[in-house]
Amino acid sequence: QVQLVESGGGSVQAGGSLRLSCAASGFTRSTTCMGWFRQAPGKLREMVARIFTSSGNSLYADSVKGRFTISQDNAKNTLFLQMNSLEFEDTAVYYCAAATRSFGCARDYNIDYWGQGTQVTVTS
């Protein structure tokens, strides 16, 4: 049974930093892409950052470029999201996501597995 377990969320003042982790287990086939999505109240879920697991290449939403960094520790099957210079608009539930097909993970419908989500609250 595939599990994606996020941790590291919390409340932080604007300008601060948080590091999210996602522990992955139970995969019977290799992932092609893993990523972080977020959903703020009243808004659609959006892709924040994604990484192609074989190449390590990463892509970011324009709103977080230069502030967020996605990385992976393949030995520990863990995905990270380092979030710096946090802004009030970054407040959302953040979800770890994994895709095992060849379509990438830029969109919800490409995702095969989701974590339960972790709340990030940025106070002004």
Question: How are the SSEs ordered, and which strands pair?
Answer:
Blueprint: E1 3-7, E2 10-13, E3 18-25, E4 33-39, E5 46-52, E6 58-60, E7 68-73, E8 78-83, E9 92-99, E10 113-114, E11 118-123
Parallel strand pairs: 2-11
Antiparallel strand pairs: 1-3, 3-8, 4-5, 4-9, 5-6, 7-8, 9-10, 9-11
- Terminal Cα separation, in Å? 40 Å
- Largest sheet features: 7 strands, mixed
What is the number of beta strands? Answer: 11
Please write the string of helix (H) and strand (E) elements: EEEEEEEEEEE
In terms of structural class, how would the helical and strand content be classed? mainly beta
Strand content: over 45%
Helix content: under 10%
Tertiary shape: globular
Mean pLDDT: 94
Helix segment tally: 0
Unreliable sequence segments? none
As a whole number of angstroms, the C-alpha radius of gyration is 13 Å
Could you characterize what this model shows?
The structure is a single chain. It is built from no helices and 11 strands. It is an all-beta fold. Strand 5 (46-52) and strand 6 form a beta hairpin. The model has no long low-confidence stretch (mean pLDDT 94).
Question: What keyword list fits this structure?
Answer:
124 residues; 0% helix; mainly beta; 50% strand; single chain; 7-stranded mixed β-sheet; 4-stranded antiparallel β-sheet; globular
